[in-house]
Structure formats: C-alpha cells, structure tokens
Design a protein that fits this description.
The protein is mostly beta strands. Helices cover 12% and strands 33% of the residues. A five-stranded mixed beta sheet has the order 2-1-5-3-4, with no helix packed on it.
Length: 66
C-alpha cells in the first residue's frame, strides 16, 4: 500500500503500524516527533497506530548542538 511520508509517496506493507515504519526506516525513536494524518502521536502509541492506504505521515528528527 502507499502512504505519503514527509510529502513523498512510499510503498509499505499492508497492515503496517507507525512502529513498524520507524523500525523499517532504522530511525532512533528517542529523537523523533511523528504526525499521522495531522495529529501528533506519542511514542508509546506508535505500535497501536495502523497505517492505511493514503495516510499522511510526517517524521521530524530532533538535532542537538550549540
């Protein structure tokens, strides 16, 4: 199925969750903010959020520095 990930079309497995997407992308979860269909999703809720055809996901990486 296809979703929009940060504005670009991405093919993912049917029934994937936000957690599965983060794992597939090999991103460090402690440095992310995730929005699903215009709602910010808490990290603890990622495993329970099932993705559907046409969903929009925005992932923002936090970067430290000084």
């Amino acid at each position: 199925m296809q979703i929009k990930l940060n504005g670009e079309t991405k093919e993912i497995a049917d029934g994937a969750t936000l957690q599965a997407l983060i794992d597939q992308l090999a991103l460090a979860p402690e440095r992310l903010a995730v929005e699903h269909n215009f709602a910010v999703i808490r990290r603890a809720d990622w495993p329970g959020v099932k993705l559907n055809e046409g969903d929009r996901v925005e992932i923002v990486h936090f970067v430290g520095g000084g």
